[in-house]
Amino acid sequence: MVQHTVSFDVTFMACLPNMVVMAPSVEAELFHMVATTAAINDRPSCFQYPMGNGVCVELPPGNKGIPLEIGKGRILVEGEREALLGYGTAVQNCVAGASLLEHRGLRATVADACFCKPLDRSLIPSLAKSYEVLITVEEGSIGGFGSHMLFFCIWRPMVLPDCYIDHGSPADQLNVAGLIQSHIAATVFNLLGQTREALEP
């Protein structure tokens, strides 16, 4: 899939069930994501092809990428109280922004998310808990990486699962999805530290 402005692609690709969605921050990472996509044989995947010039990083030997671990980001710069979490080529502006902050006495952490889906389930919670300020940066519209991260981090969303549900009555489909009243009440009890047995008479 090619989209000229790459403003909306993450938004509409990441909502598809079981889809792997990634974006390279530098040209070397693009080689690795091509290899990653070629290695995935059990689900659909896509990556954002960056527009414009590269940043002149060293390319993999023989221009051969190595498949990445699915759903793993990385820390590029270690800082103190603030963290910038970039997705795709926006990571380079995060690095430049951190440099600007450092000249003003602030040492910001910079992380490269690499994947919008699946999200890094160890890196992102660690950033959210460890820093007073966490900002996500992406070259895309609302509904993209930042929206997925908020959905994952800030509250307990109850939505359709990341799979296709077999045809059936609306009631049966909602039950399979875990969206009927007992699921909702059980989720509340779970978040309060109580078990679903609290629902029993």
Short characterization:
This protein has seven helices and seven strands. The chain has helices spanning 9-13, 27-39, 90-102, 123-130, 145-153, 170-177, 181-191; strands at residues 20-22, 45-47, 74-77, 82-87, 108-112, 115-117, 133-138. The N and C termini lie far apart (53 Å).
Note down, in words, how this protein is organized:
It is a single chain. The chain has 201 residues and is α/β, with parallel strands linked by helices. Helices cover 33% and strands 15% of the residues. Helix 2 links the parallel strand 1 and strand 2 (45-47).
Question: Level of helix content?
Answer: 25-40%
Round the mean pLDDT to the nearest integer and report it: 86
Given the C-alpha coordinates, what overall shape results? globular
Structural class: alpha/beta
**Mind summarizing the main beta sheet?**
4 strands, mixed
Number of helices, where a helix is a run of at least 4 consecutive DSSP H or I residues: 7
Q: How far apart, in Å, are the first and last alpha carbons?
A: 53 Å
**% residues in beta strands:** 5-15%
Q: Order of strands in the sheet with the most strands?
A: 3-5-4-7
What are the segments in which pLDDT stays under 50 over at least 5 consecutive residues? none
Radius of gyration using CA atoms only = 20 Å
Strand and helix order = HEHEEEHEEHEHHH
Number of strand segments: 7
Observed structural traits:
single chain; 201 residues; alpha/beta; four-stranded mixed beta sheet; three-stranded mixed beta sheet; 7 strands; 15% strand; globular
